[in-house]
Amino acid sequence: MMKTPLITVFKQIGILSRLNQLSITGNRRRLSDSGAGGVDHDIKSRFYEPEILTLLKKLTRPDLQKIFRKRKLGLRLEPPEYKFMTTEQLEQERKKADARAAEKLQMPPVLPPRKEIDEVISEDPNLAGFERSNIVFTDITFGKSDVNRLIVIRETNGRLRKANWDERFRMNQVYFPAEGRKMNPPSLFKQENMLRLCEEQRYEFLLDLACIQFEPDDPEYLRITETVYDSIDEAQAYELLRSTRHYGPLMFHLVTNRSIDNVLVENLQTDRLEDAVWAISLYHLLHPESKSKSTELIPGEELQFIKSYIETDSKKRGLLEMSLQTYLNTREVQVQRQQ
């Protein structure tokens, strides 16, 4: 009586190869599917549009001093090396530094939340009760990515189904452990602990760790990053993320949620008129139905461009008008001093 079920079980392993193509197609599709509403999906799917990426990179304001600053990562620092160089050699080294800086500023992807996996492949009542626990089949073929690797579960009731996200994460981590990633998420990602770290303004630390621990479409990753972004916006602590790889996604989040008023206030208070123009331009790209979209950006008339947004689309019009007036008064005083 035991032979037939055993043969049936091992025959199921052959399903892995037959389902490989189906798995690849399904996992590729998840990059464009969203568990959220249509509007949110439409906006987030535009993150990699060239025009939007260009604005996000400009807003990041690369600063080599900050990018290559010393950080407490537990790594041993190499002693500095001093060289005599010609002008040509110095220029080559500067280009190399710019390339390394661009690599360090590579933005984490912004994706819609993934859909839950709930796909039954087959039902085989003859296998019901054969095992006391589920059997996991994992395709460990070299070269497969964690996204399209086929992982299926044979349940004790005979059902064969695709593994859910938690099961996929655990099996991928068992066979192909990612450096720095824990099997169980660190307790600091619990909401109460995370809020305490946000109060201490350890934003970059939280975001870096989230990038290591989670995939960018994981609902937990989205919860963590959005909590951090909202905390930064509330504290107007944008400078802490400028010239880091997280500033672009921060701005994308604020614009997506129509919450750029605070950052515009900070831009005006810190004499970043160009940044304010870029932020509003990004707002127009992602929200083409906005009233201020009709105002064209003309070189030399940036103030009018900003005023149009303040008067028609801002949620904190009074605060922005006050900040703009203060900016104008400061500029007038500076001009008078120069004369």
TrEMBL record:
InterPro entries: Ribosomal_mS22 (IPR019374). Transmembrane segments: none annotated. It comes from the Eukaryota. GO terms for cellular component: mitochondrial small ribosomal subunit. Pfam families: MRP-S22. One of its GO terms (molecular function) is structural constituent of ribosome. This is 28S ribosomal protein S22, mitochondrial. It comes from Laodelphax striatellus.
